[in-house]
Amino acid sequence: MAATTTLRVIESHARVYRRTWRGSLISTFLNPVLYLAAMGAGLGSLVDGGSGPTPIPGVPYLAYLAPGLLAAAAMQTGTADASYPVMAGLKWTKTYHAALATPVGVTNLVAGHLAWVLVRVLMTILAFAAAMVLFDAATIPRALAACIPAALVGMAFAGAVTAFTSSLESEFGLSSLFRFGIIPMFLFSGTFFPITQLPGWIVPVAYATPLWHGVELTRAAALGIEPQWAVSTHVGYLLLWVVVGSAVALYNFRRRLEK
Q1: Structure confidence at residue 104 (pLDDT)
Q2: What are the residue boundaries of the structural domains of the chain, listed by start?
Q3: Burial tier of 235 (Cβ tally within 10 Å: 0-12, 13-18, 19+)
Q4: Which of 11, 35, 174, 246 has a CB 3.0–4.6 Å from the CB of 159, allowing a cystine?
């Protein structure tokens, strides 16, 4: 019964998306092509043709960059779908309050929401993986393998950002999250260059970000190399974010909705 009710929540999200999917065409399908064309093929030709060493000797910059962008795309999708849509359901449209008038419970709401975010993350990363193959940045098997840790990255951010959003009374905290959290993380978590090139004081901060762990795993899967730390360490850290974020999100939803 609980599983069926959760599926109904997922279905409601899908029905809404059926009417709004055109608005996500650019972010889901066009952004991968633009990113890889501009940053990978364009900037990459300058990096590969320069006098300095490439980030990984013998690996073209496009192949180095693409897995990092894959992880970053998962982060951005997980964050986007766990921020303003959650605020809308709790404060603006109050669809979560309406759902509780049905057999749907708070646990079903949170589980269905996170499951739908996973669906959206999978849409994004599979489109990005296709672009990676199109640009010859990875083979089909390696691009698909890189999607597994990328999905874990998306859910790590989905759980944490859902917990954060559900604790807010105002949407202004979300703009601060993107401005001071997501964008710096995108730039300084090893997506574009090894974090060892950062100033020494910020390297431990980069290690603490879930995106860096995801970039290490996606890059290892796409290039067939070993990540900087053990795979189990990277995976365990990301799973910790998923579990703790989801638990806090459930607590916050109960606090706000079960009154």
Answers
A1: 92
A2: 2-257
A3: middle
A4: 246
